[in-house]
Amino acid sequence: MDENSSARLKRRLLRIVYCIGLFLAMLTICLPGLWIVLSSLRPTVEIMAKPPIWIPQDISFDAYVAMFSGIGKGGIPVIEYFRNSLIISVTSTVIAVAIGMAGGYAFARYRFRGKSGVFLGLMLTRTVPGIALSLPLFFLYVRLGIIDTHFGLILAYVALNVPFTIWLIDGFFRQVPKDLAEAAQIDGCTRWQAFWQVEFPLAGPGIASAAIFAFLTCWNEFALASQLTRSVSAKTLPVGLLDYTAEFTIDWRGMCALAVVMIIPALTLTFIVQKHLVGGLTSGAVKG
Amino acid sequence: MATVSLKKLTKRYGNIEIVHGIDLDIADREFIALVGPSGCGKSTTLRMIAGLEEISAGSIEIGGRVVNDLPPRSRNISMVFQSYALYPHMTVRENLGFSLKIAGAAKEEMDRRVAEASAILGLDTLLERRPSQLSGGQRQRVAMGRAIVRDPDVFLFDEPLSNLDAKLRTQMRTEIKKLHAKVQSTVIYVTHDQVEAMTLADRIVIMRDGYIEQVGTPDEVFRRPATRFVAGFIGSPPMNLHEATVDAGQLVFASGARLPLPAQFKANVAAGDKVVFGLRPDDIYPTGHGLSSGDAADVHQIELPITVTEPLGNETLVFVEFNGSDWVSRMLNPRPLRSGERVAMSLDLSQAHLFAADTGKTLRS
């Protein structure tokens, strides 16, 4: 065998090894999700079976039908939970992104006293786990009378997300060359117009990804929401999962079905925004 | 079309003064080049004229109107950036028409002016492309087109060619010169490249450390440099500059080597004066291979050893040793020379320069 064909063989073998490695990695990531979907479609007996039944024997949509059947027929107020989740997630995302844009822009473009200190301070808030704050927040919210309200949870989520959105958007504004805003000003823009016409569209992918991350954080957050909400009028979907636990039993099938209902909007949204997340728009602006 | 006038223009960042109260009057339709080494304040001056930097003191007038505190958009200027600063999310057409769109111009007007500018610069086939799909030279042209479309009073160029390769730079330089002839507006052009300044400008402003060293036509700054700095900065290869002391009608160099004091300076120096002697490479040449073919008034002959030669085809740069260091000379109609060979050199002292050693100012009256 000559050198060339052995090199070719080696390359092919390596590619096969890569593919197997990738498959294993993807399997590890995707299997829990797949298991949730499967479990939502199988009877409890099959879910709890030992040894596990890998191939589903008996598939039905009963759990989904039951979920929407209303209280008393095995249903939970899923529409209300969904509405709460949507209102709280969307509102807090919009606010967090707006603040993040203003803050990120300021950090990226302006020099001011104590800048690095403020920035560090913001980032340090990320080191405190949200759950550690749940008890103080609970007392505070009770005193203020905003416990178990949309407003209360929105406030908590904005505070949770702002440092992150500022950090992410700051990075994207830094990538937009300063020259562009200056060129726009010379072309007749006010500072404000230059921002909206030139800098904002170019930082768009960054702002979109900040929004997605903020939204998903709110949408999936459980720990704080379970402490700060009680009633159907404020509970979010993750908290709603607890409705499937009774004193002695857990309805695994129903819980998985609700989890699927939760995942679908998040997944859809990520797919829609995905192409905007791809950066590289700024290439060609300046020398390159 | 407008005059530009800078009066005691000053820029300070905190306690550090970058530009020290410079005065400059630029005539209507004049092409002015601001040139100097990096950090000399030329770009800062340009940005102050553009309104991108606040001025700390003094005033700027464009077309007789004081614009000190006006935002860039109210100054009716346009600027070509070193980085081109094209809007990457817009096509070439949108880039060119952006200023008109912001000004709220009608669609027909916009189309007409974009078409005009793209015709001048040969951008017609590129209008639907984005900046990322253009080559460096094309981006440069779009940047100039965007400036033309505004029909400004004053064009500002901030080192527009420094990102291009040498060949393209020469080509774009010619295009800029043609463009100025066509649009006939006032141009302020910042560059660190003295060749660009010499070839393009009607007048050159040489800056150093936030001061203006000299303002003059390319010919003036080349032939009659006001300071030692200008003498060394303008011209390629640079002028030979060496310190000497005046002694009985002669210049005595540090090594003890002597040259006769050039006649044109005799009245302006006294014995014991410390001076800097300057002679351009064109004015020192192997005898018989110079610009002034023997009819120069004040030619001094001397035999010197060659250290290195750099043949350039039509001419050769010959480095000869004098006063313990290398002096560069330009040899026209070159013949082959060897290192170490001693050749008869002619020094045309009628073209020599003398500067005061302490102030650096010319001693020419």
Number of helices of chain B: 8
Strand percentage of chain A, roughly?
under 5%
Largest sheet of chain A: none
Radius of gyration of chain B equals 24 Å
The main sheet of chain B orders its strands as: 6-7-8-3-9-10
Distance between the termini of chain A: 45 Å
> How many structural domains in the coordinates of chain A?
2
Q: Please work out how many helical segments of chain A DSSP would assign.
A: 12
Broad shape of chain A: flat
Q: Tell me the CATH topology of the largest domain in chain A.
A: MetI-like fold
Please give the radius of gyration of chain A in angstroms: 25 Å
Provide the succession of SSEs of chain A.
HHHHHHHHHHHH
Topology-level CATH name of the largest domain in chain B: Rossmann fold
Q: Class by helix and strand content of chain A?
A: mainly alpha
Helix content percent band of chain A = over 70%
Task: Briefly summarize what is shown.
The complex is a heterodimer of chains A (288) and B (365). Chain A is mainly α and 288 residues long.
Q: What's the helix and strand layout?
A:
The complex is a heterodimer of chains A (288) and B (365).
Chain A lengths: L2 H38 L3 H5 L13 H6 L10 H32 L5 H10 L9 H11 L5 H26 L2 H9 L4 H30 L2 H6 L8 H4 L11 H26 L11
Chain B lengths: L3 E10 L2 E11 L4 E5 L6 H9 L6 E6 L2 E2 L10 E4 L11 H12 L3 H15 L14 H14 L4 E5 L7 H18 L2 E6 L2 H7 L2 E6 L2 E6 L1 H6 L4 H6 L6 E8 L2 E4 L4 E3 L13 E6 L4 E3 L12 E13 L3 E8 L2 E8 L9 E7 L4 E4 L9
Parallel strand pairs in B: 3-8, 3-9, 6-7, 7-8
Antiparallel strand pairs in B: 1-2, 1-4, 4-5, 9-10, 11-12, 11-14, 12-13, 14-20, 15-19, 16-17, 16-19, 17-18
Describe this structure in words.
The complex is a heterodimer of chains A (288) and B (365). Chain A is mainly alpha-helical and 288 residues long. In chain A, 70% of the residues lie in helices and 0% in strands. Chain A contains twelve helices and no strands. By secondary structure, chain B is an alpha+beta fold. Chain B folds into two domains: 230 residues, 3-Layer(aba) Sandwich (Rossmann fold); 116 residues, OB fold (Dihydrolipoamide Acetyltransferase, E2P) (Beta Barrel), CATH 2.40.50. The model of chain B has no long low-confidence stretch (mean pLDDT 91). Chain B is built from eight helices and 20 strands. The interface between A and B is medium-sized, with 26 and 31 residues.
